[in-house]
Amino acid sequence: MRIAIDAMGGDHAPHAHVESALSAAAEWPDTHLILVGDPEVLQPLLGGAPHNITIEPAYEVIESDDEPVKAVRRKTNSSMVVAGRLVKEGKADAMISAGNTGALMAIGLLVVGRLKGIDRPGLAPMFPTLDNAGILALDMGANMDAKPEHLVQYALMGSLYRNKVHGIREPRVGLLNVGTEAAKGNELTKAAFELLEQAPINFVGNVESRDVLERPCDVLVCDGFSGNIMLKAIEGAASVIFKLLRAELTASFTSKLAAGVLKPNFRRVRDKMDYNEYNGAPLLGVNGLVIKGHGSSDAKAMKTAIRQTRTAIGNGLIAALADEFSGK
Q1: What NCBIfam families would the database entry show (predicted)?
Q2: Taking CA atoms, which of 2, 43, 139, 225 is between 20 and 30 Å from 127?
């Protein structure tokens, strides 16, 4: 399998991406990793790279503050666009980027292209949960507006992803809402609820955001606006909680002693909420495997994204999605 990595995108590029590629290449010799970026920058970092890592030249970079669509159209020799082109042309089975999210969405639509039968591709990250199984949520920001039919497509795509990549036979699908009662919500969620009840999925009803981390379902569907707000709220809350704990545990000599005793416990809690363990959100609904890494991905997080990408390729995710929607 061949995976193109946008080696110049993200806060810790290119060093973290090269480090993760070297580790992944050694662990999975059957995987060909294509680092897309400036060879003069990448080659010194690679050193004596194994045979299953190559460099695809790209001399421009889409920055985090670039206007997405304009950047994709103007920076045609950027690492992100070139990686997308490799997928489009069948020279790579997938691409991974930790760069500009909006630009990656544009590449999915303008370069890779939508799957037949899909109206709106959705970004589907994994949320950590208390039982470590995680919950797949989509859409988390690829589209700010949605119709009820789009949420049904998200539910079908999310179910297939959890089945193919995580081996869940009948994934439970929930609808993000302000209450669990069927009649709750706005016009979008009320209409979507009725359609989801009729869809060929294991629909378990409405889910409140406060329950998400306890995994009330395996797939959570919502529009991109609500989903992105929930995502940022959870990330922010986790960050603040850890800051408060750190402040309290270093406030006095006694608390420092207690912190020393409890350090292993706190480390386990931190690891449960660590996005590095869940890195790699697929853009579901495009005609190729496009994976979004967290912007601050380090080498560990990027390797997690590579591992998840390998699993998706090996289980024929894109072919399964194409078969599901080809007649719709």
Answers
A1: plsX
A2: 2
Q: Residue 204 corresponds to which tokens in the numbers above?
A: 């378990």
Q: What are the start-end ranges of the H helices in the chain?
A: 15-27, 39-46, 68-74, 79-88, 101-107, 148-166, 187-198, 224-249, 253-272, 299-314, 317-325
Superfamily of domain 120-277: Isopropylmalate Dehydrogenase (3.40.718.10)
Cβ-based neighbours of 279, under 8 Å, separated by 6 or more: 293, 294, 297, 301, 302, 304, 305, 308
**CA 157 from chain center: how many Å?**
14
Average pLDDT over residues 77-84: 97
> Start-end ranges of CATH 3.40.718.10 in the chain?
1-118+285-328, 120-277
The CATH fold assigned to 1-118+285-328 is Isopropylmalate Dehydrogenase (3.40.718)
Place of tokens 């090996």: 314
Q: Which two tokens stand for residue 291?
A: 């994976």
**Single pTM value for the model:** 0.88
Give the pLDDT confidence of 278-307 residue by residue, as tens digits: 678 899 999 999 999 988 889 999 999 999
